[in-house]
Design goal:
alpha+beta, six-stranded mixed sheet, disordered N terminus
Length: about 325
Amino acid sequence: MTDRATDPAATHPAEDPPAEDPPAEDPAAGDRLAELAAEYTRLRPRLVGVAYSLVGTVAEAQDVVSDCWLRLTAADAQEPVRDVEAWSVVAVARRAVDVLRSARVRREEYVGPWLPEPLVDAVAEDPADRVTLDDTVSFALMVVLETLTPAERTTWVLHEVFGMPFPEVAAVVGRSPAAVRQLAVRARAHVAAGAPRVDVGAAEHRRAVEAFLRAVGHGDLAGLLSVLDPDVLLTSDGGGLQGVARRPVAGADRVARFLVGVRRKMAADERVVPLTVNGGPGFAVLAGATTRFVCSFTLRGGRVRRVDLVVAPDKLPR
């Protein structure tokens, strides 16, 4: 038996094993994340465009795209995503459809008409926050898309605007390719019936826009009547604000008088500023740096066929 007095292990207890160095970061993983981030940043305007076309508001569209970035990194960590653009468009579309379905419930309880958030030219300061849309997605068309079911709207936007093949659209909406083709037929019919086609030349278009803005700016009733289509429809989205029309105004005479009345109520420091709304003609009424409302109007046959006023503060550019 070993005497403890002479046992080295007893007189000199073993020291704790040295602490292990933390695992070194994998440089390849860091490079891959940087690569994904660069590609996603490049795609971001297009992805926000997909989401905006489906949900109708910029904030929700940006939230959808940010959420899908996290999903992309998680999916790529499990298995490398070979086609980042295709994966991202599908992921954003699926998430946007979920948001759209839940938003429709809220919009049914909305006070007055619900209009999409207008995309005003040169508002976004960061190019990454701009919404990239096809020229066909006018404000009037966005309004018509609100009348479609989520599946019809998704099918129309992804196939007609962003060129996604029907089999891929089917995977997004959870239908068969044959069913998606039927959705596309119905959506096209609704869009054709509800969205006026621009059938005037550039010069005539410009003249009509200038005449409309001049008449509105001067409160000129006769001038407005000369540029309004007899069946013109005016819709106001005030988000429940007092003093905002909660029902559409129909007919050239009533719309002209409504607009002249709005002009007469404008304060001395408010001014009419021409601008582009969703790629089409429009204007804003500003008081200093504050936007009072944004107006989009749609032409048919050289006359104004639709007037859409967005007054709800949370939808106005700041």
